[in-house]
Amino acid sequence: MGKLRVYIVSYDISDSKRLYRVHKTMKGFGEPVHYSVFRCNLSDKDKIELIAILSEIIKHDEDRIMIIDLGFLDGYVDRRISLIGVHPEEDNNESAIIV
Amino acid sequence: MRKISEFEMPDLIPARMLNEFTYCPRLCYIEWVEGEFEDNADTVDGRFQHRRVDQSQGVVPNPEEVADFTARSVDISAHEIGIVCRLDLIEGKDGHVIPVEYKRGYVPKIEGGAYESDKVQLCAQGLALKENGYECNEGLIYFVKSKQKVQITFNELLVNRTKQLINNLRLMIASEKIPSPLVESSRCVRCSLAGICLPDEINFLKNPENRNEEIPQVRKFLPPRDDQIPLYVTGYGQTVRKKGERLEVWSNRDKTGEVKIRELSQISLYGSADITSPAFTEILQRNIPINYFSYGGWFYGFSQGNSHKNVELRIKQFAFAEDKKRSLKLAQMFVYGKILNSRTILRRNDGEVSDEILKSLKKLASDAKSSNSLQTLLGIEGGAAQIYFSRFNNLLKSDDSWYSFENRNRRPPKDPVNTVLSYLYGVMVKEFFVTLNTTGFDPYLGFYHQPRYGRPALALDMMEEFRSIIADSVTFTLFNNGELSERDFISRGLGVTLTPTGKKAVLRGYERRISTEVKHPLFGYKVSYRRIFEVQARLLSRVLHGEIDVYPPFLTR
């Protein structure tokens, strides 16, 4: 709980079944920006949960996951990211979803 | 009615609870007696670091046959000293057994290399082993992060201390009184239940002499705002479906929205909005409430997974409601808060309001506090509402406009302003319903509003002090900012209703308002209104527990 930080999570998974499971898990934590790259806004608790869940899925001697911390969500995150070419959809971070 | 003293005293105390009790008796009470729990990063990490020792493995031989062995995650109970525990790891060596307790962090830099709470927990495990016939005079605490073991000898001093604490814990449960919070303790900083316990807030309210201080010494333990978000499904013919780790909302063949399930705080479904079984069960398992409204915004009820465990609070609530005198005292504070807050809204937003009106509202508020019956109180509230709503049109910039406000009317509301007010009151009832439910109350039994079939009386009680500062304020802001237009309303016979886009605009305005962070007038820290609702509910529970004498309504400045 508390303030959210922005993370870039990327992964190389050698087995397609595990790759699918990792991808499915990641969809619950963040937005896909590229193949095997997600942007996630996480609390400290979320981050530990993500690591715990992924640690159970992957094979630690075959797969790998990198987590990059971009700092607090309300900081200068977007200045640290430059985009060239097609831009991914905006993560609009609304306080409620109304449909 | 069943009295609390009829609660059965448990025979066996979990060694883990002894650890909590040693750390903070109040923590132990909240977690064990009241059945509250909340995860934070530390507790989640703790479970993660524990995952290997939590897998049961190995067999413990009989006491006579102890040779070299190891076993993981072993349950053991000892009736004489009254302890039940799960041993992370037991090692057997030369006829001795050694319990090993896993702790997630680093070896603490204190004398002896371990906290008292951990030592006592381990010692209780050792005593339980002894009672079961094993030779056991020492144990180990393994610190996962520093990968170091600290040896603990069960000497007379530690054994006596452990037995004394077990006894104190029993006395605490028998007393049926929640222990006071720690005072300015650094232990609260990492405690996952601090947001439930509210240590500094309670200490502050318990000592009235502190109240006049300019800057109260209240540390903020509760998160300033909720990271979870609500989902509202208002449109016609929408279906909520589960897709992996997300929920998707579909209208015919179009996806109209999606949300990560773990980000959800609650779901509100309006009218014919539908939810599939897989989505429904997933939501219940994650303890996310689903609220149902009519198409027009009338709150019907809600679904939730396993209900709240806090039976103790419900028993106190029912006993309190039986007591007319104490109920009236609470009701007075709800109305007092309501009148003063509506006065503040006028003072801030009605440029032409006369001193006379402000004065009479203030008088009515203080009359409310000293009223001698519920009937008088109802009369006072009615009088104040009449004065307040007589000025409501002045809050609207409606000079040459399509809307104006004459008087409050409902069922059905006859003009756009009343329509929006009614819709928002419905949303607010839901908000308090959910908050009260997650705090452990029964939302249907109130102290001011009398119980009537299907009416969430306590939610209505708690809402009183917030009506003007949330619903009314959102209403005139939406009209004044031009966020609502004539096209957002439809006249139907006697009444006026909102169109789908109008409803969305109203809900957006509402969510924007309650996510706003404001300075808490008593405690001095900044939190969102949504959090304030929760704090008020917890403060109310502390009044029912007898910890605070008078319920402090949230008074905006």
From TrEMBL, chain A:
<keyword id="KW-0479">Metal-binding</keyword>
<keyword id="KW-0460">Magnesium</keyword>
<dbReference type="GO" id="GO:0043571">
    <property type="term" value="P:maintenance of CRISPR repeat elements"/>
</dbReference>
<keyword id="KW-0051">Antiviral defense</keyword>
<dbReference type="GO" id="GO:0016787">
    <property type="term" value="F:hydrolase activity"/>
</dbReference>
<keyword id="KW-0540">Nuclease</keyword>
<keyword id="KW-0378">Hydrolase</keyword>
<protein>
    <recommendedName>
        <fullName>CRISPR-associated endoribonuclease Cas2</fullName>
        <ecNumber>3.1.-.-</ecNumber>
    </recommendedName>
</protein>
<dbReference type="InterPro" id="IPR019199">
    <property type="entry name" value="Virulence_VapD/CRISPR_Cas2"/>
</dbReference>
<dbReference type="GO" id="GO:0051607">
    <property type="term" value="P:defense response to virus"/>
</dbReference>
<feature type="binding site">
    <location>
        <position position="12"/>
    </location>
    <ligand>
        <name>Mg(2+)</name>
    </ligand>
</feature>
<comment type="similarity">
    <text>Belongs to the CRISPR-associated endoribonuclease Cas2 protein family.</text>
</comment>
<comment type="subunit">
    <text>Homodimer, forms a heterotetramer with a Cas1 homodimer.</text>
</comment>
<dbReference type="GO" id="GO:0004521">
    <property type="term" value="F:RNA endonuclease activity"/>
</dbReference>
<keyword id="KW-0255">Endonuclease</keyword>
<dbReference type="GO" id="GO:0046872">
    <property type="term" value="F:metal ion binding"/>
</dbReference>
<comment type="function">
    <text>CRISPR (clustered regularly interspaced short palindromic repeat), is an adaptive immune system that provides protection against mobile genetic elements (viruses, transposable elements and conjugative plasmids). CRISPR clusters contain sequences complementary to antecedent mobile elements and target invading nucleic acids. CRISPR clusters are transcribed and processed into CRISPR RNA (crRNA). Functions as a ssRNA-specific endoribonuclease. Involved in the integration of spacer DNA into the CRISPR cassette.</text>
</comment>
<dbReference type="InterPro" id="IPR021127">
    <property type="entry name" value="CRISPR_associated_Cas2"/>
</dbReference>
<dbReference type="Pfam" id="PF09827">
    <property type="entry name" value="CRISPR_Cas2"/>
</dbReference>
From TrEMBL, chain B:
<dbReference type="InterPro" id="IPR050646">
    <property type="entry name" value="Cas1"/>
</dbReference>
<feature type="binding site">
    <location>
        <position position="449"/>
    </location>
    <ligand>
        <name>Mn(2+)</name>
    </ligand>
</feature>
<dbReference type="Pfam" id="PF01930">
    <property type="entry name" value="Cas_Cas4"/>
</dbReference>
<dbReference type="GO" id="GO:0004527">
    <property type="term" value="F:exonuclease activity"/>
</dbReference>
<feature type="binding site">
    <location>
        <position position="464"/>
    </location>
    <ligand>
        <name>Mn(2+)</name>
    </ligand>
</feature>
<keyword id="KW-0460">Magnesium</keyword>
<dbReference type="GO" id="GO:0043571">
    <property type="term" value="P:maintenance of CRISPR repeat elements"/>
</dbReference>
<feature type="domain" description="DUF83">
    <location>
        <begin position="17"/>
        <end position="198"/>
    </location>
</feature>
<comment type="subunit">
    <text>Homodimer, forms a heterotetramer with a Cas2 homodimer.</text>
</comment>
<dbReference type="InterPro" id="IPR042211">
    <property type="entry name" value="CRISPR-assoc_Cas1_N"/>
</dbReference>
<dbReference type="InterPro" id="IPR013343">
    <property type="entry name" value="CRISPR-assoc_prot_Cas4"/>
</dbReference>
<dbReference type="InterPro" id="IPR042206">
    <property type="entry name" value="CRISPR-assoc_Cas1_C"/>
</dbReference>
<keyword id="KW-0540">Nuclease</keyword>
<keyword id="KW-0255">Endonuclease</keyword>
<keyword id="KW-0238">DNA-binding</keyword>
<protein>
    <recommendedName>
        <fullName>CRISPR-associated endonuclease Cas1</fullName>
        <ecNumber>3.1.-.-</ecNumber>
    </recommendedName>
</protein>
<keyword id="KW-0408">Iron</keyword>
<keyword id="KW-0051">Antiviral defense</keyword>
<dbReference type="GO" id="GO:0051536">
    <property type="term" value="F:iron-sulfur cluster binding"/>
</dbReference>
<dbReference type="GO" id="GO:0051607">
    <property type="term" value="P:defense response to virus"/>
</dbReference>
<dbReference type="GO" id="GO:0004519">
    <property type="term" value="F:endonuclease activity"/>
</dbReference>
<keyword id="KW-0378">Hydrolase</keyword>
